[in-house]
Amino acid sequence: MSEGSVNVDQIQQxxxxxxxxxFGEVQxxxxxILGSGLGVIADQLEDRRTVSYAxxxxxxxxxxxxxxxxxxxxxxxxxxxxxxxGRPHWYEGVSAETxxxxxxxxxxCGVQTVIVTNAAGAIRSDLTVGDVVLITDHINLQFKNPLVxxxxxxxxxxxxxxxxxxxxxxxxxxxxxxxxxxxxxxxxVLGPSFETPAEIRAFRTMGADVVAxxxxxxxxxxxxxxxxxxxxxxxxNPAAGLSDQALGxxxxxxxxxxxxxxxxxxxxxxxxxSTPESLTDTTQKGTSFV
Length: 290
Hints:
Elements: H1 8-23, E1 30-34, H2 40-43, E2 46-52, E3 70-76, E4 79-85, H3 96-107, E5 113-122, E6 132-141, H4 164-176, E7 182-189, H5 197-206, E8 210-212, H6 216-224, E9 228-238, H7 249-272
Parallel strand pairs: 1-4, 1-5, 5-9, 6-7, 7-8
Antiparallel strand pairs: 2-3, 3-4, 5-8, 6-9
Helix pairs in contact: 1-3, 3-6, 4-7
Protein backbone atom coordinates (compact mmCIF):
# COMPACT_ATOMS: atom_id res chain seq x y z
CA MET A 1 0.00 0.00 0.00
CA SER A 2 1.68 3.19 -1.10
CA GLU A 3 1.84 6.41 0.89
CA GLY A 4 -1.16 8.50 0.00
CA SER A 5 -3.61 5.58 -0.03
CA VAL A 6 -3.73 4.28 3.54
CA ASN A 7 -6.83 2.12 3.99
CA VAL A 8 -7.48 2.23 7.73
CA ASP A 9 -10.61 0.04 7.57
CA GLN A 10 -8.74 -2.67 5.71
CA ILE A 11 -5.93 -2.66 8.29
CA GLN A 12 -8.38 -2.79 11.20
CA GLN A 13 -10.34 -5.68 9.73
CA UNK A 14 -7.22 -7.75 9.06
CA UNK A 15 -5.85 -7.13 12.55
CA UNK A 16 -9.18 -7.87 14.17
CA UNK A 17 -9.40 -11.26 12.44
CA UNK A 18 -5.89 -12.17 13.65
CA UNK A 19 -6.55 -11.11 17.25
CA UNK A 20 -9.89 -12.93 17.41
CA UNK A 21 -8.29 -16.06 15.99
CA UNK A 22 -5.56 -15.89 18.65
CA PHE A 23 -7.64 -14.94 21.70
CA GLY A 24 -11.35 -14.79 20.92
CA GLU A 25 -13.10 -11.84 22.54
CA VAL A 26 -10.96 -9.75 24.89
CA GLN A 27 -12.08 -6.84 27.05
CA UNK A 28 -9.03 -5.13 28.50
CA UNK A 29 -8.90 -1.95 30.56
CA UNK A 30 -5.46 -0.72 29.51
CA UNK A 31 -2.96 -1.29 26.72
CA UNK A 32 0.75 -0.88 27.48
CA ILE A 33 3.43 -0.37 24.84
CA LEU A 34 6.69 -1.46 26.43
CA GLY A 35 9.95 0.07 25.23
CA SER A 36 13.57 -1.07 25.30
CA GLY A 37 14.27 -3.28 28.31
CA LEU A 38 10.79 -2.67 29.79
CA GLY A 39 9.13 -5.92 28.72
CA VAL A 40 9.35 -7.21 32.29
CA ILE A 41 5.80 -5.96 32.90
CA ALA A 42 4.48 -8.40 30.30
CA ASP A 43 6.50 -11.17 31.97
CA GLN A 44 4.51 -10.58 35.17
CA LEU A 45 1.09 -11.13 33.59
CA GLU A 46 -1.02 -13.91 35.09
CA ASP A 47 -2.88 -16.29 32.73
CA ARG A 48 -0.75 -14.87 29.95
CA ARG A 49 -1.53 -15.58 26.32
CA THR A 50 0.67 -14.33 23.49
CA VAL A 51 0.73 -13.91 19.75
CA SER A 52 3.80 -12.95 17.75
CA TYR A 53 3.80 -9.74 15.76
CA ALA A 54 4.73 -11.93 12.80
CA UNK A 55 1.22 -13.44 13.00
CA UNK A 56 -0.55 -10.06 12.95
CA UNK A 57 -1.04 -8.45 9.52
CA UNK A 58 1.09 -5.37 8.83
CA UNK A 59 3.36 -6.10 11.81
CA UNK A 60 6.63 -7.98 11.82
CA UNK A 61 9.13 -9.31 14.31
CA UNK A 62 11.27 -6.63 15.92
CA UNK A 63 14.88 -6.31 14.84
CA UNK A 64 15.93 -4.47 18.02
CA UNK A 65 17.36 -6.13 21.13
CA UNK A 66 15.08 -5.69 24.14
CA UNK A 67 11.92 -5.82 22.01
CA UNK A 68 10.39 -9.29 22.10
CA UNK A 69 7.89 -8.51 19.33
CA UNK A 70 4.73 -10.05 20.74
CA UNK A 71 1.30 -9.05 21.97
CA UNK A 72 0.40 -10.41 25.41
CA UNK A 73 -2.99 -10.58 27.12
CA UNK A 74 -3.24 -11.35 30.83
CA UNK A 75 -4.02 -10.14 34.32
CA UNK A 76 -1.85 -7.50 36.00
CA UNK A 77 -2.72 -5.84 39.31
CA UNK A 78 -6.14 -7.50 39.19
CA UNK A 79 -7.08 -6.14 35.76
CA UNK A 80 -7.07 -7.66 32.29
CA UNK A 81 -4.59 -5.69 30.20
CA UNK A 82 -2.81 -5.96 26.87
CA UNK A 83 0.95 -5.51 26.60
CA UNK A 84 2.80 -4.87 23.39
CA UNK A 85 6.17 -6.31 24.30
CA GLY A 86 8.37 -4.25 22.06
CA ARG A 87 7.49 -1.77 19.35
CA PRO A 88 8.32 -0.91 15.73
CA HIS A 89 10.48 2.11 14.95
CA TRP A 90 10.64 4.25 11.83
CA TYR A 91 14.35 3.44 11.55
CA GLU A 92 13.49 -0.24 10.99
CA GLY A 93 11.96 0.75 7.67
CA VAL A 94 8.34 0.25 8.67
CA SER A 95 5.42 2.13 7.13
CA ALA A 96 2.50 4.07 8.59
CA GLU A 97 0.36 0.94 8.25
CA THR A 98 2.51 -0.74 10.91
CA UNK A 99 1.65 1.86 13.53
CA UNK A 100 -2.04 1.81 12.57
CA UNK A 101 -2.02 -1.98 12.98
CA UNK A 102 -0.24 -1.73 16.34
CA UNK A 103 -2.88 0.53 17.89
CA UNK A 104 -5.69 -1.33 16.12
CA UNK A 105 -4.52 -4.51 17.88
CA UNK A 106 -5.06 -2.79 21.22
CA UNK A 107 -8.41 -1.34 20.25
CA UNK A 108 -9.90 -4.62 19.13
CA CYS A 109 -9.07 -5.94 22.62
CA GLY A 110 -11.31 -3.21 24.06
CA VAL A 111 -8.51 -0.81 24.99
CA GLN A 112 -9.39 2.88 25.19
CA THR A 113 -6.41 3.99 27.31
CA VAL A 114 -2.89 3.52 25.96
CA ILE A 115 0.22 3.75 28.14
CA VAL A 116 3.37 4.30 26.09
CA THR A 117 6.77 3.73 27.68
CA ASN A 118 10.33 4.09 26.48
CA ALA A 119 13.95 4.42 27.49
CA ALA A 120 15.24 7.95 26.94
CA GLY A 121 18.31 10.11 27.22
CA ALA A 122 18.23 12.94 29.75
CA ILE A 123 18.64 16.48 28.45
CA ARG A 124 17.49 18.41 31.52
CA SER A 125 20.23 18.73 34.15
CA ASP A 126 18.21 17.47 37.13
CA LEU A 127 17.33 14.16 35.44
CA THR A 128 19.52 11.17 36.25
CA VAL A 129 19.69 7.52 35.20
CA GLY A 130 16.73 5.61 36.62
CA ASP A 131 14.36 8.58 36.84
CA VAL A 132 10.83 8.00 35.57
CA VAL A 133 9.51 10.99 33.62
CA LEU A 134 5.81 11.62 33.06
CA ILE A 135 5.46 13.07 29.56
CA THR A 136 3.46 16.29 29.37
CA ASP A 137 4.02 17.05 25.67
CA HIS A 138 6.29 16.15 22.78
CA ILE A 139 8.36 17.65 19.98
CA ASN A 140 8.30 15.61 16.78
CA LEU A 141 11.72 15.80 15.13
CA GLN A 142 11.26 12.47 13.37
CA PHE A 143 9.88 14.49 10.46
CA LYS A 144 7.36 11.74 9.77
CA ASN A 145 3.71 11.38 10.62
CA PRO A 146 1.77 8.10 10.25
CA LEU A 147 -1.43 10.05 9.58
CA VAL A 148 -0.11 11.09 6.16
CA UNK A 149 -2.07 9.31 3.44
CA UNK A 150 -5.30 8.81 5.40
CA UNK A 151 -8.28 10.26 3.57
CA UNK A 152 -9.83 12.60 4.38
CA UNK A 153 -6.77 14.16 6.06
CA UNK A 154 -7.23 13.87 9.85
CA UNK A 155 -6.59 17.34 11.23
CA UNK A 156 -6.56 16.13 14.83
CA UNK A 157 -5.80 18.43 17.76
CA UNK A 158 -2.69 17.59 19.80
CA UNK A 159 -3.26 20.24 22.49
CA UNK A 160 -3.83 17.57 25.14
CA UNK A 161 -2.20 14.54 23.55
CA UNK A 162 -1.07 13.31 26.97
CA UNK A 163 -4.25 13.11 29.04
CA UNK A 164 -4.23 15.64 31.91
CA UNK A 165 -6.58 13.68 34.19
CA UNK A 166 -4.56 10.49 33.82
CA UNK A 167 -1.37 12.43 34.55
CA UNK A 168 -2.94 13.84 37.71
CA UNK A 169 -3.90 10.31 38.80
CA UNK A 170 -0.35 9.06 38.37
CA UNK A 171 1.16 12.06 40.15
CA UNK A 172 -1.20 11.44 43.06
CA UNK A 173 -0.14 7.78 43.18
CA UNK A 174 3.54 8.72 43.16
CA UNK A 175 3.05 11.12 46.08
CA UNK A 176 0.95 8.65 48.04
CA UNK A 177 3.54 5.88 47.72
CA UNK A 178 6.62 8.10 47.85
CA UNK A 179 7.68 7.06 44.36
CA UNK A 180 9.82 9.49 42.40
CA UNK A 181 8.04 10.79 39.31
CA UNK A 182 9.22 13.82 37.40
CA UNK A 183 7.53 15.61 34.50
CA UNK A 184 8.98 16.63 31.18
CA UNK A 185 8.71 17.21 27.45
CA UNK A 186 9.76 14.39 25.15
CA UNK A 187 11.71 14.95 21.94
CA UNK A 188 11.37 12.21 19.33
CA VAL A 189 14.12 11.76 16.73
CA LEU A 190 14.36 9.37 13.80
CA GLY A 191 17.48 7.34 14.68
CA PRO A 192 19.03 4.85 14.53
CA SER A 193 22.15 6.96 15.09
CA PHE A 194 22.29 8.73 18.41
CA GLU A 195 22.12 12.51 18.52
CA THR A 196 25.14 14.81 18.29
CA PRO A 197 26.04 17.07 21.24
CA ALA A 198 25.11 20.08 19.08
CA GLU A 199 21.67 18.59 18.43
CA ILE A 200 21.15 18.02 22.15
CA ARG A 201 21.99 21.67 22.85
CA ALA A 202 19.46 22.68 20.18
CA PHE A 203 16.79 20.38 21.64
CA ARG A 204 17.36 21.87 25.09
CA THR A 205 16.84 25.35 23.65
CA MET A 206 13.57 24.14 22.15
CA GLY A 207 12.36 23.02 25.58
CA ALA A 208 12.98 19.27 25.43
CA ASP A 209 13.79 17.38 28.64
CA VAL A 210 14.31 13.83 27.33
CA VAL A 211 15.04 12.38 23.90
CA ALA A 212 14.50 9.01 22.21
CA UNK A 213 13.65 7.41 18.86
CA UNK A 214 10.12 6.08 19.39
CA UNK A 215 6.65 6.68 20.81
CA UNK A 216 5.42 9.64 18.77
CA UNK A 217 3.87 7.66 15.88
CA UNK A 218 1.94 5.49 18.36
CA UNK A 219 0.67 8.58 20.18
CA UNK A 220 -0.47 10.15 16.91
CA UNK A 221 -2.41 7.06 15.87
CA UNK A 222 -3.85 6.58 19.37
CA UNK A 223 -5.12 10.15 19.34
CA UNK A 224 -6.50 9.68 15.83
CA UNK A 225 -8.59 6.86 17.32
CA UNK A 226 -9.43 9.07 20.33
CA UNK A 227 -7.67 6.81 22.80
CA UNK A 228 -6.51 8.44 26.01
CA UNK A 229 -2.70 8.46 26.26
CA UNK A 230 -0.30 8.32 29.20
CA UNK A 231 3.41 8.61 28.36
CA UNK A 232 6.36 7.57 30.55
CA UNK A 233 10.10 7.66 29.87
CA UNK A 234 12.72 5.89 31.95
CA UNK A 235 16.03 7.75 31.83
CA UNK A 236 18.69 5.31 30.67
CA ASN A 237 21.61 7.69 30.14
CA PRO A 238 22.63 11.34 29.89
CA ALA A 239 22.12 12.59 26.34
CA ALA A 240 25.06 13.05 23.97
CA GLY A 241 27.69 15.49 25.13
CA LEU A 242 26.44 15.56 28.73
CA SER A 243 28.80 12.86 30.02
CA ASP A 244 31.99 11.09 29.02
CA GLN A 245 30.06 7.88 28.28
CA ALA A 246 29.94 6.67 24.68
CA LEU A 247 26.33 5.96 23.75
CA GLY A 248 25.06 2.66 22.39
CA UNK A 249 22.04 0.38 22.71
CA UNK A 250 23.87 -1.62 25.38
CA UNK A 251 24.01 1.54 27.48
CA UNK A 252 20.27 2.03 27.00
CA UNK A 253 19.43 -1.50 28.12
CA UNK A 254 21.73 -1.30 31.15
CA UNK A 255 20.52 2.12 32.27
CA UNK A 256 16.81 1.40 32.00
CA UNK A 257 17.14 -1.33 34.63
CA UNK A 258 17.75 1.42 37.20
CA UNK A 259 14.19 2.74 36.91
CA UNK A 260 12.31 -0.35 35.86
CA UNK A 261 11.06 -1.25 39.35
CA UNK A 262 9.70 2.25 39.96
CA UNK A 263 7.86 2.10 36.65
CA UNK A 264 6.36 -1.29 37.53
CA UNK A 265 5.19 0.01 40.93
CA UNK A 266 3.61 3.12 39.43
CA UNK A 267 1.78 1.17 36.73
CA UNK A 268 0.70 -1.53 39.16
CA UNK A 269 -1.00 1.02 41.40
CA UNK A 270 -2.47 2.90 38.44
CA UNK A 271 -3.89 -0.22 36.78
CA UNK A 272 -5.16 -1.67 40.05
CA UNK A 273 -7.38 1.39 40.47
CA SER A 274 -8.50 1.42 36.85
CA THR A 275 -11.83 0.23 35.56
CA PRO A 276 -13.30 0.58 32.06
CA GLU A 277 -15.63 3.24 33.43
CA SER A 278 -12.90 5.29 35.12
CA LEU A 279 -10.72 5.20 32.01
CA THR A 280 -13.42 6.22 29.54
CA ASP A 281 -13.52 9.88 28.60
CA THR A 282 -17.17 10.37 27.75
CA THR A 283 -16.47 13.80 26.25
CA GLN A 284 -14.65 12.23 23.30
CA LYS A 285 -16.17 10.48 20.31
CA GLY A 286 -13.79 7.84 19.11
CA THR A 287 -13.31 6.58 15.59
CA SER A 288 -15.48 3.46 15.35
CA PHE A 289 -13.76 0.10 15.14
CA VAL A 290 -14.89 -1.90 12.14
